[in-house]
Amino acid sequence: MSWLQALIIGLLYYLSDAPWFFGEGYYCLQRPIVAGFLTGLVMGDPVTGTIIGATINLIYLGHLNVGGSMPSDMAIAGYIGTALALATGVSTEVALAIAVPLGLLGTIWWVGKMTIDSFFVHWADSYAAKGDAKGVILMNWLPSNLMMLVLKLIVAMVILMAGVPLMESFLNVIQGTNILNALNVVGGVLPALGIGLNLRAILKGETLPFLLIGFLLVSYFSVSIVGVALFGLAFSLIYLQLNKKEDASYGG
Amino acid sequence: MAANVENSAVQEEKRMKLTKKDVQKSYWLWQFFSHANYNYERMQGGAFAACMAPIIEKLYPNKEDRVAGLQRHLTFFNTNPNVGTVIHGAVISMEEERANGAEISDEAINAVKTGMMGPFAGIGDALDQGVIIPLIVALGISFGQTGNLFGPLLVLIGIPLALMLIAYNCWMKGYSLGSSAITSMLAGGRMKQIIGAAGILGCTVMGGLIATSVSLKTAIAFNIGDEAFDLQAQLFDAIMPNLLPLAVTLGVYALLRKEKFTSIQIMLGIIVICFVGGLVGIF
Lengths: 252, 283
Description:
The structure holds two protein chains of two kinds. By secondary structure, chain A is an all-alpha fold. The mean pLDDT of chain A is 89. The longest helix of chain B is centred in the middle third of the chain and has 39 residues. By secondary structure, chain B is mostly helical. The N terminus of chain B is likely disordered. The chains are: A mainly alpha, B mainly alpha. Chains A and B meet through helix 2, helix 3, helix 4, helix 6 and helix 7 of A and helix 2, helix 3, helix 4, helix 6 and helix 7 of B.
């Protein structure tokens, strides 16, 4: 891990919560699958980076940011987690086990940002009192982004530069013990949390059969996820048609 | 009478009309910066004011109205940033009418904003964070886990495309229909049907994902009499493949629904149980 690589990964980590790219950076650059791909590009192995990132992303599949509370910082898990895994050459399951605590650490940063940003909105107040529309626009993005850029760069570079040797010595210690197997088990089960979180938002009595059908299609017939999605699309179209008929009969 | 006609002609001339460009400029300010200064005190309040700023600047030439306009929108605001843009569009049309002398009070504008941000947060979050994003990401993961670079590219392109299509259209719809748009959108059953259909699609894919992405096998084996018995192969796999992943996922879901534990507590629980289980040879 060179300083330049750490710097670029830090910059990407900043972009994952920044308003650039139509504000969509927040929606897609923070996804670990994208983070893994981009980090892989920086470290010279985009394919392995994508595999690691996609696996880390499974935990954050049901990530809901409701009312400004964030359960976990998936961006730090994606960027720093993939970079550490690539630098030390661990398995994807172990990469997942590294990423999780990083994601939890990230929530500290989120609470700090949400608190400090409260001050900047008062700066906007004083521009509004002068009738300065441009000032109100400027205060909405400039101070928060300067702060975020500096803080995120420092956090990412410190963890990356200090983390690689730390992890290497840790991996040396556990080599040959049962701990690697245990970490693999943890990595295998954690995706259940990501799926469970998403199910909390969409699973109800009436959608439970479809969950089972999707599961059975893969378990017994090895249908790909794209195939399952197409089945799901057909089911939802049937649902819409059935509802339309009901509406018409009520109307008539 | 002649004076009257002349008077209305003058008023016509002075009518403050927003162009489509003005409305679009406001939209882009939101699209880029809706969460740039997201904070506990006002949430998206600063961003709401920022996207209204060019509208206010154009509609209210005198300074007093302009100050009042900017301050009116620098209040607490929080909704779904994509579907909730109906509110922004409607508020712009209300501001436009107000600038042209219509009797629209501060309270009326505030009522639309505060009354509707909750319902639209619910609808919008169910749609984008509940279904659209997880669906695109799930497809991306299924490609990405095999090392196919189309996976991350799908997420990079698919999510912005889907969300911006929704946000832009809701914004423009809100503007062209005004505050009545909001009530009609909430009252009609159409929105509920779309969310229901999206939920079915989402659940089907999540079901498949349980089978492909969650893995858990027990390593327990013992002897019954003289016969060796492998719990995983001879019991669980005999009943149904991926039985344990399904049971664990539904168990996590049930725990989450009861709201007795936070997601972080459940995560820590999974780590401890699986780690210990892996160490002693249960898994």
